[in-house]
Amino acid sequence: MPSLSEIYRAHPVHVQHKHPDLNSLQELPESYTWTQHQDQTNNNSTLNHTVPVIDLNDPNASNLIGHACRTWGVYQVLNHGVPITLLHDIQHLGETLFSLPSHHKHRAARSPDGVDGYGLARISSFFPKLMWSEGFTIVGSPLERFRQLWPQDYHRYCDIVMQYDETMKKLAEKLMWLMLESLGIIEEDLKWAGAKGEFKKTCAALQLNSYPICPDPDRAMGLAAHTDSTLLTILYQNNISGLQVERKGSGWVTVAPVNGGLVVNVGDLMQILSNGLYRSVLHRVLVNRVKQRLSVAYLCGPPANVEICPHEKLVGPNEPRLYKSVTWNEYLGTKAKHFNKALSKVRVSGSMSEEVIS
Ligand SMILES: O=C(O)CCC(=O)C(=O)O
Ligand SMILES: [Fe+2]
């Protein structure tokens, strides 16, 4: 079975790798100048315009999550069981990593056909302008990469990543079942989840993102609008606003950080599995001139070669099947080619397409 790294290697994305040290720039270079976008942000913070915050100890959590996935494609969770100390540790790791000198970070640069390491966002290749951010991707063991960054004390940082990865895997399993339960799908309905429904063979990647202080935030873009190619993504943001999600009819809505909370995005593969009942959320990140923003995304997908298709329980005479079967491997290939149009490319022909991406 191919690993996630092998899959990415098969679908190289060509991203310009030489870029200036963003921390040293006093002005926004032309190559980073996007058109005005702040005016498209919806500042109305009434209840309907706030991303749902769900307490996982609530006995009704599954229904609340299901409702959030249908209407928003994103929610935040509290009482998720991830120790706050671990969140602080991973945040500290990210801060330390991104504050290394530029030439030092480039020692661990992602290769053009690689997946792990330091570099610009993979989606950069789809846009004419550069994004005001830097990233570091971890797939599997971070040992090799961390040795390049911290020849002396890489062990300490490896331990944090391994612990974070393990903890997120457990949380992802819990969230998957809460999301599926609300669709009426239980453990015996999903063979690839394993005998105990543990999703043991799921593939995952960890994405650290840094958005440095920006001299002209209104014209810069931290991360351009995209959906995640995952089943679900669990995101930790360091209490600094910037993440926005698109809500149909309301425009861009800021996901206000909640103390100790984690953001959960519905990904493209979950939209397919749910036969379009759950929405893969379009999101982007804006930057600011006051504080560096950091985020850590746990990108969770199925085993690479498992066919993901609309679940049979969700398809019937009145609910036509909307998507073809795809493996994660195949879907990442489609995404590498068609980016935000990938979901409509795997849509069954003849079914009405909703995926009109702005
Ligand atoms: O930084 C964020 O809040 C979002 C990051 C993100 O969307 C991603 O890594 O895919
Ligand atoms: Fe994302």
Instruction: Report the bound ligands by name, code or SMILES.
Output: 2-oxoglutaric acid, fe (ii) ion
In CATH, the topology is named Jelly Rolls
CATH class: Mainly Beta
Spatial extent as radius of gyration:
20 Å
Total helical elements: 9
| Reported CATH architecture | Sandwich
Keywords: Dioxygenase, Iron, Metal-binding, Oxidoreductase
Cofactor: L-ascorbate
Domain Fe2OG dioxygenase: 201-302
Pfam families: 2OG-FeII_Oxy (PF03171), DIOX_N (PF14226)
Give a brief rundown of this model.
With 358 residues, the chain is an alpha+beta fold. It is 26% helix and 18% strand.
What do you see in this structure?
The chain is globular, with a radius of gyration of 20 Å. It has a single domain (4-345), classed as B-lactam Antibiotic, Isopenicillin N Synthase, Chain (Jelly Rolls), CATH 2.60.120.330. Helix 2 (61-71) crosses helix 6 (154-181), helix 3 packs across helix 6 (154-181) and helix 5 (143-149) crosses helix 6 (154-181). The protein starts with a helix and ends in a 13-residue tail after the last helix. A hairpin with a 3-residue loop joins strand 9 and strand 10 (251-254). It has an 8-stranded mixed β-sheet with strand order 2-3-11-8-13-6-5-4. It has a 5-stranded mixed β-sheet with strand order 1-10-9-12-7, with no helix packed on it. The mean pLDDT is 91. The chain has 358 residues and is of the alpha+beta class. 26% of the residues lie in helices and 18% in strands. The structure holds 2-oxoglutaric acid and fe (ii) ion. 2-oxoglutaric acid is lined by residues 207, 209, 223, 228, 235, 237, 243, 283, 285, 295, 297. Its EC number is 1.14.11.15. GO terms for molecular function: gibberellin 3-beta-dioxygenase activity; metal ion binding. It comes from Vigna radiata var. radiata.
